[in-house]
Every structure is written in structure tokens, then in C-alpha cells.
Amino acid sequence: MSNTTDFESIRRQLASTIHTHWKLFLAQGIVMMVLGFLAIAVPNLATLAVEIFVGWLFFVGGIFRAVSVWHSRQAPGFAWSLLTAVLSIVLGLILILRPLEGVLTLTMILVAFFLIEGIASSIAAIEHRQHLRSWGWVLFSGVIDLLLAYLIWQGWPSSASWAIGLLVGVNMLFLGLSLVMTALAARLMGNQ
Q1: CA proximity to 165, closest of 94, 106, 91
Q2: Residue 105 — pLDDT band, cuts 50, 70, 90?
Q3: Is the pTM here over 0.90, yes or no?
Q4: I want to staple 22 with a disulfide (CB 3.0 to 4.6 A). Which of 109, 151, 157, 186 is the partner?
Q5: Which distant-in-sequence residues (6+ apart) come within 8 Å of 93 by Cβ?
């Protein structure tokens, strides 16, 4: 009986915390989706332009994500979300400050980023599936990240010049979609 009571108490606290910050999740999701569409629209830029553009996408998206994650510290998956935000900021700075390192290096960095983000999203979704209605969307985003890592790795090095912008855009689009769906589910959770 006490396990059921504890679970209900935790569920109510979790619902309240997520409901309080659902607008941050929604705003972050919309920004990520817009940035994803922008990245998809310009996949044929020169290698240098792609590296700088992707660097700014990761840097700005990482800062926005870090700020929104920090404001919702009690939300499930805080550590994993903060890790991917910091990784995004660091990756962005590397690409902005060292753009001539080459598209092949960027390709390997993106494989590592998508792999880590895919694992982190999948673990967070599975760990919190009992507490979040939108856990399936978060898991779906993680699986997409893992698929992108695989596709980049398989096409390397020949696909690196055109695939980077497209794959980063797809990743950001699905990450944004998972955040929007989480925000919408969190908004409804507060009404229960």
C-alpha cells in the first residue's frame, strides 16, 4: 500500500514540476524545429559554410537547451538533458573556432554527438516511461539520433559534404518535435 502511495506522490510532484515548465519545453521544441528546417534547406553550402553554420546551430541550440533545462531542474532526465546541452555548446564552439579542420572531422564529431544524444534520449525515455505520457516521442527521437549516427558512419567519407546539413536538420527537427510533444503532454498532465 505504501508503494502505491509513494508512486502516486511522486507522479503528482513530477506532473506538477513538468506542468510548471511546459512552456519552456514548448519554446525550446519550436526553436529546435525551426533551426532544423533551416539546416535542411541549405545542405549544399560549401564545407566551410556548413561547418560554421552547424557550429552556430549547436552553440545557440545548446545554450537555449541548457537554460531551459536549468529552469526545470526537477524534470525527469535533467542530467542527461544537461549533458547533451553542454556537448552541443562545446561542439558548436569547436566548429566555430576551428572551421578549417575539415568536413571529415565534423562528420566523426556528429557521429559521436548523435550516438551520445541517441543513447541519452533512449535511456531517459525508458527510465521515465511510467511518469511521462510522451516518453514514446523521446524514445523515437533517440532512435532517430542512433539511425542518423549509423547513416553518417556508413556513408563516410563520400556523403559527408552533402549529408551534414541535411542530417543535422533532421536531428534538430525530431528533437524539437519530441520537446513539443513533451510540452503538450505536460500541459495536459497539470489538469489531472
Answers
A1: 106
A2: confident
A3: no
A4: 186
A5: 55, 59
According to the model, what pLDDT value does residue 118 have?
92
Using DSSP, state whether 128 is helix, strand or coil.
coil
Residue 117: all three cell numbers together: 544524444
Using CA atoms, how far residue 184 sits from 12, 38, 39, 175, in Å, is 17, 24, 25, 14
Residue 108's Cβ-count burial label (10 Å; 0-12, 13-18, 19+) is middle
In the chain, which ranges are E strands? none
With cut-offs at 50, 70 and 90, classify the pLDDT of residue 119. very high
The DSSP symbol for 86 reads H
Q: Measure the CA–CA gap between 136 and 153, rounded to whole angstroms.
A: 26
CB neighbours of 97 closer than 8 A, spacing ≥ 6?
none
Task: Tell me how far apart the alpha carbons of residues 178 and 80 are, in angstroms, rounded to a whole number.
Answer: 15
Q: Which three cell numbers stand for residue 186?
A: 505536460
- Judged on CB neighbours under 10 Å (0-12, 13-18, 19+), 128 is middle
Note the pLDDT of residue 9.
81
The three-point CA angle 41-162-51 to 5° equals 80
Return the closest-CA partner of residue 170 out of 61, 36, 51.
36
Using alpha carbons, list the distances in angstroms from residue 51 to 92, 97, 104, 109.
9, 10, 11, 11
Grid cell 566551410 — which residue? Answer: 48
